[in-house]
Amino acid sequence: MIQDIQPKCYHNEYIPRPIREGDVVFVFRGREVLLREENDCLTFPGDMEVQEKELQYLFSIDDRAFYLGREEVPGYTFQPMRLLRRCTPQDLCFAGMTAWHLYNWYAGHRFCGRCGKPLHHHENLRALACDCGNLVFPVIAPAVIVAVTNGDKLLVTRYAGREFKGLALIAGFCEIGERAEDTVRREVMEEAGLRVKNLRYFDSQPWGYASNLLLGYFCELEGSDEIHFDQEELSSAVWVSREELEPVEENLLSLTGTMIETFRLGKE
Ligand SMILES: [Zn+2]
Fold this sequence. Notes:
Elements: E1 10-11, E2 24-29, E3 32-38, E4 41-43, E5 56-61, E6 64-69, E7 77-80, H1 90-108, E8 120-121, E9 128-129, E10 135-136, E11 141-150, E12 153-159, E13 170-173, H2 180-192, E14 195-207, E15 212-222, E16 234-241, H3 255-264
Parallel strand pairs: 2-6, 11-15
Antiparallel strand pairs: 1-5, 2-3, 3-4, 3-7, 5-6, 8-9, 9-10, 11-12, 11-13, 12-16, 14-15
Zinc ion binds near residues 114, 115 and 117.
């Protein structure tokens, strides 16, 4: 999956250092990222090209540090975020998505929500601080991905009105005061009108495109298999047998793709 960058190591401790050779600067605008595409290879601005004095340190992967910039850099153009999926090595894709998560958090937290004064960065924590004492930590939204099985069939969905047209699974945000397992039951009922049992936790995935931490669950159908799907959220929801599922190749970056493939191979 996208976060599996071993043997490289992601360091998210907040220990800023000045930019140096080999480091990477991400500049975002809307849902675009500043990059250069040459011979199918994506590159991002580095230490020699960025004139900006106040880069925001983000994190490191091994010895390479990543920063957030604000200014355009000659020779680079803004391109859709989805191009990040084509980055090689894969840790660059993970870095871009995680940088995007942090970018959105920084951009949305410039002022204190309690007293309205500008926030400043905490010296040694990933947090924004206010003179009034308020401390603001990164926002991560937990959400569930649910593979509902019925014997050798899997409930697969397609989203309504989204750019992504591929196969999906039931998914939804955890509400305040709710256990992840209750989110699973609620979302399956809301989106497909089905009841489930025997919930089994599968794996998790940080998904910075939507500021999520995704929690994957397998569960079994309980009672009627008649689907009544939510037509605002989904364009379709159907039972598909193992044999009918196509191998998932491109989408193994995602938890959803990994779960569908796990089912197809008979491992769940
Ligand atoms: Zn304040």
